Amino acid sequence: MNLKSNPIPWQDRPAGSNSVMWRYSENPIIDRYAIPSSNSIFNSAVVPFGEGYAGVFRCDNKSVQMNIFAGFSKDGLNWDIEHDPIQFNPGNTDMIASDYKYDPRVTFIEDRYWITWCNGYHGPTIGIGYTFDFKEFFQCENAFLPFNRNGVLFPKKINGKYAMLSRPSDNGHTPFGDIYISYSPDMKYWGEHRCVMKVSPFEQSAWQCTKIGAGPVPILTEEGWLLFYHGVINTCNGFRYSVGAAILDEEQPEKVKFRTQPYLLAPSEIYELTGDVPNVLFPCAALHSIEEDKLALYYGAADTVTALAYGKISEILTFIKDNSL
Ligand code: BMA
User: Fold this and answer.
1) PANTHER family from the entry (predicted)?
2) 317 C-alpha to center of ligand 1: Å?
């Protein structure tokens, strides 16, 4: 499998900015109506593929049904998204029932691209599938019982097992939520569930005091696993979703080494403040180059469009360590 890609999207930090992460000046990169059926395209995942990039996109249609669609790009910025949703073939099971699919993540492990998403099976739980080519897709057993959201695989086995973060939840707009890790020998049976991170006390870090959930697939760095996550505060006008980051131990990722007290990004641009669900930044993917010290974070903005932010990995790691809870 050729994982050599075109250069990842990048823009230098704007003059005068001292933010650890900054937004792409041409945001949003994907418009809500980018395919004929869509009402909104957001909370989507991209990976290096061939000489460019592939992705799995959450496109809600104009009946506001949630589904996931494959897409391709040469530069990571301009995307061609299929007009029909992904059709799954049976993978390690025949039980591939799904009432809806949303908030996908994608990662390459060993020989294939694994996809996790929030799968509707008597309420939200974590669906798992894989593809080799983004044309043919296979669906596996759901990882967990309902209700669960934000299932995010690590990009390699840890101590011989697949590892996945998730956020046990309820059937509604969950007013609580902590991040757990589970392990599997075979991508079918999951266990050894451990708590990784809980919400923070309101007085210490209010933006992440209601619920937290893993964002993109964790990135292995010299400090450990770099994990971006969303943190939520319940305000008098509803939930507000911001982005923080943590460093998890490489061998035992249930051990949190550092975790940001301040957020890295919070709703402030017009496309984050207004839309179908105002005040939401929801990261689901990141492209990175350790050698070039670059990271491009893809996030859904206001549950309506897809946007991009940049940062230098070394600066982000230093920021997390210097501003840890
Ligand atoms: C969560 C999920 C996300 C969404 C967020 C904000 O529960 O549904 O897809 O971005 O709420 O509405």
Assistant:
1) 1,4-BETA-MANNOSYL-N-ACETYLGLUCOSAMINE PHOSPHORYLASE (PTHR34106:SF1), GLYCOSIDASE (PTHR34106)
2) 27
Is 11 inside a domain boundary?
no
How much is the pLDDT for 6? Answer: 80
What distance in Å separates the CA atoms of residue 59 and residue 304, rounded to the nearest whole number? Answer: 9
Which residue puts its alpha carbon closest to atom 7 of ligand 1? 173
> Which of 58, 150, 173 has the most ligand 1 atoms within 8 A of CB, as the residue to mutate?
173
Structural domains of the chain, count: 1
Quote the domain boundaries for residue 40. 27-322
Output the CA 291–ligand 1 centroid distance in Å: 33
Q: Would 35 be classed as within a structural domain?
A: yes
Q: What is the pLDDT of residue 1?
A: 41
Burial group, residue 83, by CB count within 10 angstroms (0-12, 13-18, 19+): exposed
Query: What's the CATH code of the domain at 300?
Result: 2.115.10.20
Phi, psi of 59 (to 5 degrees): -120, 110
